[in-house]
Amino acid sequence: MRHNFCCSCIVSALDMEETRVCCTYCDSPEQAVRTCLQCEASFCEKHLQRHSKSSEHILVDPDVNLEERKCSTHNEVLKYYCTMDASCICVSCWVAGDHMGHEVEILDVASEKKKEKLRSAVEKMNLDKMEAGKKIQNLTDHGVEEEKKLSGLTEKVTNLFTDLRKKLVDLESRVLSEISRQKDQVSLSVSDMIRQVELHKDELTKKIHQFEESCDITDPLTLLREDLFKVDVSDRSCDVIGDVREAQSLDYVVVTQILYRGLLRFVEDLNNLKRTSLFPVMEKSEVLLDIDSAHDIIISQTLTSASYTATSQNRPDGPERFESCQVFSSCSFSSGRHYWELDISSIDVEISDRYYCSSHLYFINLLLMSYVIVIGAEMLLDMRE
């Protein structure tokens, strides 16, 4: 039977033959399972049973390149490990070579010691890995918890603004309703006044027509006998002017009262938020100045303000007193989040990247080259000119 092979298959088969380690003592190629460094021979399962069990005969996995396991200087098998130089050596290296007199160990012993170190390292890394896993889980749980808090806060804020908008819309509705009511009243009043004026206008039209007809009478006796002035036209005109002024107008006071009262209630509702736990507000920390550290600057009786002065304050010298226009705060904070407020006429804030006692220095430049330095949790007020 004929077989055809491609070039790549032939090359692959040859490569496998080259990397395959065969038993040294078998007549036909048999896969070796172990290699003896002492004998420099490889053994199959059958011949391995007859091989010496002496500790000098080190068995390793089949290895084609045995030269790597020999000393490059003496061409002998590497059997020992020099603990001083951390290198594998042969007998000649230890007896008469560069490693003479050095502390050495058999490769198996040195290997077991290294394995023990590796096992200890693995054990420690496993503990670190477990700790890292716990941290990841804690961070994951923290993220989930914070996500819940953020979702809850988002819902609270949404509900809050919905309620605030509703209050404003209700207030707007009340104000516009009052304006609409007054608009109807003004419209009704003006319409009634217009109706009255139109009636008066009609009366005047009739009277004018009557007077004009009387002017056309040629008989003096007839004209003089007619009583045409029962109604005083000039007085009725004055009454018309008075009626216009008495027509209903927009009452700004009522509208303004409704608006202002609604806004006051709205502000009260906002202030009530500070007294509830819905949106807690950070209270400012009370920072008092330490007069024992103050230089010749004016410190208020409340210990809450400092100001520069050219007049000596005649304070006694002390180890804590500054030699320039500075003062420390008398309180400090060991933990938590805090803030305080400074009232000054001019300010320029800078953050330095320098360190003092492993703490950041925060500079607040004030008027007249003054500044505040926050060192860790303490505050230094500098009033330097």
TrEMBL record:
Taxonomy, superkingdom: Eukaryota
GO CC annotation: cytoplasm
Cited InterPro entries: B30.2/SPRY, B30.2/SPRY_sf, ConA-like_dom_sf, E3_ubiq-ligase_TRIM/RNF, PRY, Znf_B-box
Matches recorded under Pfam families: zf-B_box
Domain B box-type stretches: 66-107
Listed GO MF terms: zinc ion binding
Presence of keyword Nucleotide-binding: no
Spans traversing the lipid bilayer: 361-381
Residue ranges of every copy of the B30.2/SPRY domain listed in the record: 266-385
Keywords, ordered alphabetically: Coiled coil, Membrane, Metal-binding, Transmembrane, Transmembrane helix, Zinc, Zinc-finger
UniProt entry tagged with the keyword Membrane: yes
Record protein name field: Uncharacterized protein
Organism (species): Engystomops pustulosus
Native organism taxonomy: Eukaryota, Metazoa, Chordata, Craniata, Vertebrata
